[in-house]
What does this fold into?
Amino acid sequence: MTVNAALLNAIASGELKVVDLTETLCPEYPTISLPPEFGQASPMVINEISRYNESGPMWYWNNFTISEHTGTHFDAPAHWISGKDVENGTVDLVAPERFIAGVNVVDCSKEAAADQDFILSKQFLLDWEAEHGQIEANSWVFMRTDWRKIVSPDNWTNTDAEGQAHHPGPDEECVLWMIEERDVLGFGTECVGTDAGIGFSFDPPLPCHYHMHGAGKYGLQCMTNLDQLPEKGAVIVAPPLKIRDGSGSPLRVLALVP
It folds into this structure.
């Protein structure tokens, strides 16, 4: 049996489960909010073209407008100033085999429930490795927080009255260790960004964006259902839209789980 046939048989039989890690896009989906002096991401806007009516009697379709970084989305290196000169750093130039990779799912859900500003550290990952094995080169690290179970559905970005977002993320030492010591493919999260909500106050600001993209690594955020994945053994399929010179893209993230 060929590898492809074995894969299809495993999916058909249920031996290999496909888990959707993607939030549903809609106009109500919250967008990343930056300080007011900066440009802002567009929410999803849907305009109906026709729906079995005089504008198109046999077909239904829509036009839509959306930011590259709204909803479950992929960050390419070019998204950040540190990655602006990275070779093949836009979504249209990333080698397609990079969109299929193994994943290490680091469960921080108890810590995030106790502290919505929880900061992932190098030591936390070393302790995780002691239990689950070393993080492989060219694999994803996903920070599981069960975020949808923690925050109010009416304030998913968890922004306080002063406009400060509060959600977990890694510190600089942790990010540099993932890059330099483990050569990860990228970092993913269920929160609105790969950095902590308070990451603007770090030096450099938003160190996950700064160092990951400067090293030619990728980001995934606004995922869901990470609680359905094992710590190791799943394969992630995450190809973004092929936008010319794109800094990122909404996408459908799928996990193949034994």
